[in-house]
Design brief:
Shape: elongated
Order of helices and strands: HEEEEEEEEEE
Strand content: over 45%
Number of domains: 2
Largest sheet: 5 strands, mixed, barrel
Number of strands: 10
Number of helices: 1
Helix content: under 10%
């Protein structure tokens, strides 16, 4: 998934903070934490941990998807959610029987996450503990 740069800050600015803006293929810009030094225009992967996703979100960075599978795991439920242009995301959510949202397979769901929750890293740095949201996107600022 490749995207073009929106702005061109000095490269020094990219290494002074923990966050970088990343443009996804569909033009969505998200703030991601960098794990290593990254440069303007560099192709990176962006990933999210399943427990960092908020289902039924109305605020924050949002993806929209369709629940494809739901598995109950005691006090949590694990969801497989298909997101157009990204693929399948896994999400873990706490649930109490009779309380809260339980999303059924086939149901649409908004997926939120806090700014800076995604991780941006060069493709070779993926240690397999995160699910990939986007591959070969570009750092824009």
């Amino acid at each position: 998934m490749s995207a073009s740069a929106i702005s061109t800050p000095a490269l020094d600015d990219l290494d002074t903070g923990d966050l970088v803006n990343v443009a996804l293929a569909d033009g969505t810009v998200i703030a991601a934490r960098k794990r290593t030094a990254l440069q303007q225009g560099e192709a990176v992967s962006v990933s999210l941990r399943p427990e960092s996703l908020s289902l039924g979100a109305t605020e924050g960075s949002l993806f929209k998807g369709i629940v494809r599978n739901r598995i109950f795991l005691g006090s949590t439920a694990e969801y497989a959610i298909e997101v157009q242009g990204i693929g399948t995301l896994l999400a873990k959510a706490d649930h109490v029987i009779g309380h809260g949202n339980l999303f059924k397979p086939g149901e649409p769901v908004a997926i939120g996450f806090a700014s800076g929750t995604p991780l941006a890293f060069p493709e070779t740095k993926n240690n397999g503990t995160n699910q990939r949201v986007a591959k070969n996107v570009e750092i824009i600022s």
